[in-house]
Amino acid sequence: MASSTNIQIFSGTSSLYLSKQIAEKYGTTLGKVTMNHYSDGEFQPCIEDSVRGAYVFIIQSTFTPADNLLELLLMIDAARRASAYKIAAVIPYFGFARQDRKDKPRVAIGAKLIANLIQVAGVDRIITMDLHADQIQGFFDVPVDHLYSSSIFVPFINSLKLENLVIASPDIGGSKRANTYSHFLQVPMVICHKYREKANVVSEMTVIGNVKGKNVIIVDDIIDTAGTLTKAADLMMEQGALSVRAFITHPVLSGPAYDRIVNSKLTELYVTDTIPLKKSHPKIKVLTVSDLFADVIKCVATNQSISANSYVK
Q1: How far apart are CA 179 and CA 188, in angstroms?
Q2: CA-based torsion, 290, 295, 299, 305: positive or negative
Q3: How would DSSP label each residue in 11-65?
Q4: Can you give 210-240 as a three-state secondary structure string?
Q5: DSSP 9
Q6: How far apart are CA 200 and CA 225, in angstroms?
Q7: pTM of the shown model
Q8: Which residue is catalytic, options 194, 231, 278, 313?
């Protein structure tokens, strides 16, 4: 069996900024990977260090473009063919997770397809954070360590010492997540009910619960075009909220997201670094997940319990 000293950590191109921090917090350096590019756009990652008999951790978030996913698959295959003892894919942001079911005829279940691809490539374990739907863990036939940003966000929210605090879910689907925060913080919860005519477009929204005179914190897993979040923030301020902050794990922030955040009544937006910000703004604050992932990698490598250390909630 591989020992805790026979651990090697590698990074895909898109997550290099985060992987360096994780490796440093773990107490090691990243393994060397070179990327060969062909003129037609094809690429070939090459692991330059020997991984024979090693427990290999490959860090790569699978946000767009799809090259990030393909790069992860190729690196897993390269490690397997190089006789790695075990391979863990560390995927801070698991892309395509919004395609977790057939919500209309003749569509793909993208999350299941991606899970199949990663398994076929040769992984032995998945470490990820805040999946869009918890049941995606069941799409894999290998162990999945599903981490939650609440272990980072809850202590930080406590440090803000906000009075008259209320937790809000931006939609019905996120009510379980909001309830978890509400339970840990011992504060009330409200829910936004929204109606979409199509993806990324909210046509109607109402707030279920009282926000008047409250400092509101909205929690969610993904912020994409920021339409739902900014509409909810503006609506709550109109209904008498003192302030509205948001704690959201994955900052996809595509399309008009930045403009909407800047022009909204949102006080602050806190995100993690599972996805790098395209640009910075005073309203947007980043909390790192590097310590969390470094600790979990250490637990996996030394066969320690992850849940006992409160990394999973």
Answers
A1: 9
A2: negative
A3: E-GGGHHHHHHHHHHHTS-PPPEEEEE-TTS-EEEEE-S--TT-EEEEE---PSS
A4: CCCCCEEEEEEEEECCCHHHHHHHHHHHHCC
A5: E
A6: 7
A7: 0.93
A8: 194
| pLDDT tens digits along 148-185 | 999 999 999 999 999 999 999 988 888 999 999 999 99
Q: Output the furthest CA–CA distance in the chain (Å, rounded).
A: 61
Q: How far apart are CA 282 and CA 297, in angstroms?
A: 32
Q: Can you tell me whether residue 166 is helix, strand or coil?
A: strand
The alpha-helical segments, DSSP class H, found in 122-164 are 150-160
Residue 65 preceded by cis peptide, ω within 30 = yes
Dihedral of the CA atoms 165, 128, 266, 244 (nearest 10)?
-10
Give, as one character, the DSSP assignment of residue 146. Answer: E
**Of 113, 209, 221, the residue nearest 173 (C-alpha):** 221
Q: Which residue has the tokens 């066969």?
A: 303
Measured in degrees and rounded to the nearest 5, phi and psi for residue 179 equal -65, -35
In the predicted model, what is the mean pLDDT of residues 57-67?
A: 95
Q: Is 285 tagged catalytic? A: no
CA separation for the pair 227, 171 (Å, rounded): 12
Q: Whole-angstrom Cα distance, residue 229 to residue 245?
A: 10
Instruction: Give, in order, the Cα–Cα distances in Å from 218 to each of 42, 171, 204.
Output: 41, 10, 18
CA 56 – CA 76 distance, rounded (Å): 9
Q: For residue 313, what pLDDT band results from cuts at 50, 70 and 90?
A: low
